[in-house]
Amino acid sequence: MRLAIVGCGSIGSELARAADNMSEVKKIYLIDQDDAAAEKLAAELKKAAAVHSVEQELYHCDLMIEAASQAAAREIIPKVVGRGVDIMIMSVGALVDDDYRKSVYDIAKGTGARILVPSGALCGTDGLSSASVGRIDDVELVMTKNMESFIDVPYLKERYSGVEIKKPTIVYEGVAREAVKLFPKNVNVAATVSIMGIGFDKTKVKIIVDPETHFNSHELIVRGEFGEISSKTKNVPSPDNPATSHLAALSAISALKRVIRNDWVGI
Predict the structure, then answer these.
(1) Is the pTM of this model over 0.90?
(2) Long-range pairs for 227-231: beta carbons < 8 A, 24 or more residues apart
(3) Alpha-carbon span 91 to 46, nearest angstrom
(4) What is residue 87's three-state secondary structure?
(5) Which of 31, 73, 129, 187 is the most exposed place for a label (fewest CB within 10 A)?
(6) How many angstroms separate the CA atoms of 153 and 147, rounded?
(7) Which residue in 52, 214, 218, 246 is the catalytic one?
(8) What is the per-residue pLDDT across 50-76, written as a single tens digit (0 to 9) for each?
(9) How many angstroms separate the Cα of 62 from the Cα of each of 4, 86, 87, 106, 176?
(10) Are 66 and 89 a contacting pair, CB within 8 Å?
(11) Residue 246 designated active-site
(12) How far apart, in Å, are the Cα atoms of 168 and each of 178, 206, 213?
């Protein structure tokens, strides 16, 4: 298999290093808006090459993996699936617009391409997927992180500039559609849950800043005719990017292994 990875940040880099050691992966093309970052990472690997164009590599790769940003994902998804190439998306918030999401899924259906979304930093999505076959009444996602995880979030800068948060504080409570837009680097799991469950306007999101925590915690609560799910995940933040949980990168690596080996146990 030949891979192209868009984004050479913490997740993209960890994924590329893992793929470099997979015998099934023959070539890895690395793309980043910072050419130097792609070149630096490629120099560390045996099978990688830094390239400059997503479109150029669509003729050479079997799977494109987006690990950059919502904006990058929105731009490249139509191009990739339009060529009939599978794409794995980490910035799932790119699919928050209903018309856009329907459009790219329609394109993918026409070309036979697959849009793959790993579970990310969240456990319990398997149960949510099963529950969605029947009636779901309520889905809530509660996220707890320290303030370092929300660096450069304009929404919080406007409301907490100069304010020291000394105890667990709810900084956002609303629906997933708004949360994904206000926290584009932090709550992609809310987009995953919304797509799998009852949608962006019905999925409730609560974000808590806890200055004492050393984890990125996600609690998923689902209620419906099946019963109730309560799943809590305490993630260690990525050492390279506190806004990202280490489990998110591991989920991408696991998803890649499953795709390569055609292994769908537990779906």
Answers:
(1) yes
(2) 229/124, 229/127, 229/128, 229/131, 231/122, 231/123, 231/124, 231/127
(3) 27
(4) strand
(5) 129
(6) 10
(7) 218
(8) 998 888 778 889 999 999 999 999 999
(9) 8, 7, 9, 20, 32
(10) yes
(11) no
(12) 22, 12, 9
